[in-house]
Design a protein that fits this description.
about 70 residues, mainly alpha, about 75% helix, about 0% strand, elongated
C-alpha cells in the first residue's frame, strides 16, 4: 500500500465518494435485495475509511516536523 499523503487523501476521497453513490442509489426505485447490497457497500466503504484514517494518523505520527504540511 502506498502511504504517501496524496495516496491516503485519494483513498479517503474514494471511500467517501463510494458512500455518497450508494446513498444516492438508495433514493432510486430498487428491490429490497438491492437496498441491502447498497447498505452493505456503505458499511464496507466506511470500514475502509476507518483503515485510511488509521494510516493517516500513523503517517502524521511518524512524519518528521519538516515532512508535515504547513497550515
Amino acid at each position: 500500500m502506498d502511504d504517501t499523503l496524496p495516496a491516503l487523501r485519494h483513498s479517503a476521497r474514494g471511500c467517501l465518494n463510494a458512500m455518497k453513490l450508494c446513498v444516492s442509489a438508495l433514493e432510486l426505485p430498487c428491490t429490497h435485495e438491492e437496498e441491502m447490497e447498497f447498505i452493505e457497500d456503505v458499511i464496507r466503504s466506511s470500514d475502509k475509511l476507518v483503515n485510511v484514517v488509521e494510516r493517516l494518523e500513523a503517517f502524521f505520527a511518524n512524519a518528521a516536523p519538516s515532512d508535515q504540511p504547513s497550515a
